[in-house]
Amino acid sequence: MSERKSPLKVIPSASEEQLVQALGDLLTRCSQEALARQDKFSVGLSGGSLIQLLTKALKSCNLKTANWVFFFCDERYVPLDDSDSTYGAYRAEWLTQLPSIQESQFVRADTSIPLDACAADYEAKVKSQVDRFDLLLLGMGPDGHTCSLFPEQPATLQETQRLVIPIRNSPKPPPERITFTLPLINNARNVAFVVTGGGKASVVKSVFVDLDKKFPAAWVNPTNGQLTLMVDAGAGKEIETLK
Ligand SMILES: O=C1O[C@H](COP(=O)(O)O)[C@@H](O)[C@H](O)[C@H]1O
């Protein structure tokens, strides 16, 4: 076990409705703080189950999002119109359900160039627009992966120079991806994991109670930022000591 650099805030929810509300509250607070400090609110998005929850939260809290800029904490190296594209999934949801968010607010990866160049190009895009992320929204798989940092590829957790790296042979398809690395993630002002479902209860305990470093999510430890864990009743059922 190792130490947390800042205390973990756990937000348990009894229902999806409550979790969506809590996510809306987090977005409200982080965006207000960011926009009081600067003219843009930078948000890093993850894929998977977060997409639907975030869409619901944004719909219900009705925030002014014109000055928000969306990046991707990881992206699958597939064409933008592929069903595996995280950007494509957000675009499909938000175009119809959140028409006030423009495509130009997404900073997306160029998956038409070679994988290494795609990662380097995305890092350059991040560096040119963001000093520290205001908010990173992370998911976690049942294997403890977060972003595209997988337990089978521990060398990715040792990266100290690059902020975005290419991933090959990902254990979860599709095999090629790009991902934020720990130096970028742990420099954020706010990092929030959003984890749902009883199938993830034991890994939630291993990561957030035991801080078991065999799981990449346990390496997320903001140096000077707030770490939050949002769980529904299923995912949170083994972490009574943290609530
Ligand atoms: O492949 C991915 O999986 C994780 C977790 O997804 P979930 O559906 O289990 O919530 C996601 O956070 C990541 O962005 C994605 O590329």
Task: Record keyword descriptors for this entry.
single chain, 243 residues, alpha/beta, Rossmann fold, six-stranded parallel beta sheet, three-stranded antiparallel beta sheet, 30% helix, 17% strand, globular, binds ligand LXAUTJHC, 6-phosphogluconolactonase activity
Poorly predicted sequence stretches spanning 5 or more consecutive residues:
none
**What is the arithmetic mean of pLDDT?**
96
User: Which topology does CATH recognise?
Assistant: Rossmann fold
What are the secondary-structure elements, in order, as H or E? EHEHEEHHEEEHEHE
CATH architecture: 3-Layer(aba) Sandwich
| CATH class group | Alpha Beta
Overall number of strands:
9
What fraction of residues sit in β-strands? 15-25%
Helix fraction bin = 25-40%
> What is bound: which ligands?
the ligand O=C1O[C@H](COP(=O)(O)O)[C@@H](O)[C@H](O)[C@H]1O
Characterize the main sheet. 6 strands, parallel
Radius of gyration based on Cα positions = 17 Å
Tally of discrete structural domains: 1
What is the quaternary state of this protein?
single chain
Give an overview in words.
With about 240 residues, this protein is an alpha/beta fold. The chain has one domain (about 20-215, about 230-235): Rossmann fold (3-Layer(aba) Sandwich), CATH 3.40.50.1360. Helices cover about 30% and strands about 15% of the residues. It contains six helices and nine strands, in the order βαβαββααβββαβαβ. The strands form two sheets. It has a six-stranded parallel beta sheet with strand order 1-9-8-5-2-3, with helices on one face. A three-stranded antiparallel beta sheet has the order 4-7-6. Helix 1 crosses helix 2 and helix 2 runs parallel beside helix 3. The two termini are about 20 Å apart. The mean pLDDT is about 95. Bound molecules: the ligand O=C1O[C@H](COP(=O)(O)O)[C@@H](O)[C@H](O)[C@H]1O.
